[in-house]
Amino acid sequence: MEHFPSVLTTAESDATVDRIEAHFERHGFGLWAVEVCDQAPFIGFVGLAVPPFEAPFTPCVEVGWRLTVQSWGNGYATEAARAAVAFGFGPVGLKEILSFAVPENVRSRRVMERLGMTHDPADDFDHPAPPRRRHVLYRLRSPNSRP
């Protein structure tokens, strides 16, 4: 939550879980819980989601992640995001997957780049949710789609 306005309360966290479960019901995909076998039963989530806001690039599907600070630097976000992208381009049949973050979130931007995503500054946008911060947008086209 380093680049978010605040950490979630227990009630907000519970509501997030409810939204994630509803997303799976509605779309057939969503954010997966991530664990490290024999080490940590839950380190966060990674997966695919349909952003709930309007922007010049929506509707779309994004790949996203939130992991505990203790798990950073171990490649878990990249590994899980690669699996999510493969699922999105495979069984889900997506033609493009997006990801976005505040410009200062260098760790997430590196994950996006390791996934092969590209950034065009012309796509950057002001996120509509408070506190309405500027975000960079990255894109990845399916290897099976035509330009």
Description:
With 147 residues, this protein is of the alpha+beta class. It has a single domain, classed as Aminopeptidase, CATH 3.40.630.30. 28% of the residues lie in helices and 27% in strands. It is built from 3 helices and 7 strands; from the N terminus they run αβββαβαβββ. Strands 4, 5, 6 and 7 form a 4-stranded antiparallel β-sheet that branches. The chain has a 3-stranded antiparallel β-sheet with strand order 1-2-3. A hairpin with a 7-residue loop joins β6 (125-126) and β7 (134-141). The relative contact order is 0.15. The model has no long low-confidence stretch (mean pLDDT 91).
What's the domain count? 1
CATH architecture: 3-Layer(aba) Sandwich
Q: From N to C, what is the helix and strand string?
A: HEEEHEHEEE
What structural category characterises the helix and strand content?
Answer: alpha+beta
Shape: globular
Radius of gyration: 15 Å
Strand content: 25-35%
* CATH fold-level assignment: Aminopeptidase
The description of the largest β-sheet is:
4 strands, antiparallel
Number of strands: 7
| Percent range of helical residues | 25-40%
What is the number of helical segments per DSSP (H or I, 4+ residues)? 3
CATH homology superfamily name: Gcn5-related N-acetyltransferase (GNAT)
Task: Give the low-confidence spans.
Answer: none
- Span of the ends, CA to CA: 35 Å
- Quick check: average pLDDT? 91
CATH class: Alpha Beta
